[in-house]
Amino acid sequence: MKSFHVGLIGLGNVGYRVWHNLLTHRELLAKKSGKEIEIKKIAVRSVEKALKQGVPPGILTTDWKEIVNDPDLDAIVELIGGIDVPYEIITEALKKGKEVVTANKALLAFHGQQIASLASSYKRRILFEASVAGGIPLLQAIQDGLVANRFLMISGIVNATCNYILTEMTNGRMSYADALKKAKELGYAEADETLDVSGEDSAHKAAILCALSYRFWPKVEEIYTSGIQSVDPFDIQYAGELGYVFKLLAIIKKHQDSKEVEIRVHPTLLRKDHILSSVSGSFNAVIIKGDIVGDQLFYGRGAGGDPTASAVLSDLVELARYPHMEYNPRLFFADEQTEYKVMPISEIISRYYLRLNVVDKPGVLAAIAEILGKKNIGISSVVQPEVSSFSQGVPLIIMVHDAKEKYFKEACFEISRLPFLKGEPIVYRVEDFHVQ
Ligand SMILES: NC(=O)C1=CN([C@@H]2O[C@H](COP(=O)(O)OP(=O)(O)OC[C@H]3O[C@@H](n4cnc5c(N)ncnc54)[C@H](OP(=O)(O)O)[C@@H]3O)[C@@H](O)[C@H]2O)C=CC1
Ligand SMILES: N[C@@H](CCO)C(=O)O
């Protein structure tokens, strides 16, 4: 049997499990790919640590250039994270005629188009199944299984760390800080966990999904992104009493007959009976609405060493099975961008949850309803939970029907200036997954 030689760069949470699972599944993978897939060299930062992990010393180096320049390697796997060094590694590897696998969504979000163009011009492949939704074969589904469809919507939970934290906070089992600490220990979080909790990691994944679905790389800065750092346990509780749960969602919607794509990441209220509401812990789930197939749901582990290694290994098998393709259909978005653009957040239409802290006196609700009414924004429900002390004001929660974001924000601004208001209005979007 022929061999397929691989150089691995990075032996952390994911890299180590790629190495381990390739050894334990060697025969199975050989049968399925028709090649002996073998890791011949591993670049690490600490040889001592790698030796403790059981890696034989003969295959270790601390210089990734040794891997990129090794003429006997067919492919490299980049699993170090970050942007600048991986960019250098991948561009050098492609120039040297290597195929590339990466799980690096941050790199792809910022440089995906250049890297794909480079891969195309060198007639080499770059595969990145693990970069979105961990172990779920989501990108293959978009590129192969659903290839006949135009995509109307791709939305869901694509960050395991945030989903884990929100699940623990909702169940009342852990505080935000404790859940984040645990997510790091479990290997879900990025080396810099602010990428997770700020929503940026989900935005990077949304950019990749957008490129694959619409042949359009949005600028990361244009993706409206808001994280879970300031989600207040009170709002989780009040939303729960109203029949909703909090999820950090990435939402991508193509407006029909328009060149605009809605693409946004933010904490979102979902009805408890919606299928995504039951997606808990480190699981991810994405709904894809295709014009032929209708709704599809993809569900599975979104992070962690083994689920992510499963996706990396699937890319390696694909490379080993089909060596050196002249044209790589997976990079069909590489050379030419469509003319789409990102819809400004002010133009989106959504339902909203609005929590105000008000002085408890007659006329308050009427004044707020008048401001919303003047903007043609309908109220769907109002709740004033009873509190033990009135000294700091009372919470007033208002759910509103579909409204254009800019009119709702204008109304909120007017409301914030009412004399009986204490503190700023708290606003969350509520998602029904309608497409326009
Ligand atoms: N963890 C997950 O669940 C998922 C991660 N990803 C992505 O996979 C990539 C890896 O993630 P993960 O394994 O969690 O990260 P880790 O931080 O656990 O692993 C990265 C490893 O790379 C090593 N490293 C850093 N720089 C170099 C270098 N120049 N040469 C050799 N080794 C180097 C680090 O060494 P040291 O230990 O000394 O810092 C570390 O061991 C990232 O791009 C991440 O976004 C994608 C999907 C899921
Ligand atoms: N930090 C990421 C890893 C998977 O991409 C997450 O929590 O989803």
From TrEMBL:
Keyword Iron annotated: no
Regions that span the bilayer: none
EC numbers: 1.1.1.3
Positions bound to NADPH: 105
Keyword annotations: Amino-acid biosynthesis, Methionine biosynthesis, NADP, Oxidoreductase, Threonine biosynthesis
Family annotation (CDD domains): ACT_HSDH-Hom
Pathway where it operates: Amino-acid biosynthesis; L-methionine biosynthesis via de novo pathway; L-homoserine from L-aspartate: step 3/3; Amino-acid biosynthesis; L-threonine biosynthesis; L-threonine from L-aspartate: step 3/5
Pfam families found in the cross-reference section: Homoserine_dh, NAD_binding_3
Family: Belongs to the homoserine dehydrogenase family.
Protein name: Homoserine dehydrogenase
Organism: Methylacidiphilum caldifontis
